[in-house]
């Protein structure tokens, strides 16, 4: 069965590039450009994994994560944070709230990100 990944990210260029890579690897990609839409899609589509940026329009990523983990429907979906925020406070907060892992965009190539996603789904 094809694994579904919800990518909540406001940079549409990054959305598209990662979507191309992950689709080629056999994943189904669902995109959301802001936190509110992301939450709605998480409940409707019940993805196997959520890739979440922290800096988002409408609803901050940490709030999205908190809402996901407090909701019966979405609480067990693994969430991987993919952001440019490198502050240890942000990292700790995200992990406390239940993120599976925390990736800083500039530290990973897109291939490495795809690899991390595969690991998180296995």
Task: Fill in the keyword field for this structure.
single chain, 122 residues, alpha/beta, five-stranded parallel sheet, 5 helices, 5 strands, 45% helix, 19% strand
How would you explain this protein's 3D organization?
There is one protein chain. With 122 residues, the chain is α/β, with parallel strands linked by helices. It is built from 5 helices and 5 strands. The chain has a 5-stranded parallel beta sheet, sandwiched between helices. Helix 1 links the parallel strand 1 (4-8) and strand 2. Helix 2 (35-45) runs parallel beside helix 3. The mean pLDDT is 94.
Strand order of the largest sheet: 2-1-3-4-5
- Rg over CA atoms, rounded to whole Å, is 13 Å
Distance between the termini: 13 Å
Percentage beta strand: 15-25%
Structural class: alpha/beta
Could you report the average pLDDT, rounded to the nearest whole number? 94
Query: pLDDT under 50 segments (min length 5)?
Result: none
What is the number of beta strands? 5
Reported for the largest beta sheet, the result is: 5 strands, parallel
> What count of helical segments does DSSP give?
5
């Amino acid at each position: 069965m094809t694994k579904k990944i919800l990518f909540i990210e406001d940079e549409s260029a990054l959305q598209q590039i990662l979507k191309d890579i992950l689709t080629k690897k056999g994943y189904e990609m669902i995109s959301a450009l802001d936190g509110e839409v992301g939450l709605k899609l998480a409940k409707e589509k019940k993805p196997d994994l959520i890739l979440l940026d922290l800096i988002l329009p409408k609803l901050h990523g940490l709030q999205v994560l908190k809402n996901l983990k407090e909701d019966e429907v979405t609480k067990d979906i693994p969430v991987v944070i993919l952001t440019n925020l490198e502050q240890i406070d942000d990292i700790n907060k995200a992990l406390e709230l239940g993120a599976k892992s925390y990736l800083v965009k500039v530290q990973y190539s897109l291939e490495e990100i795809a690899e991390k996603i595969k690991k998180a789904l296995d």
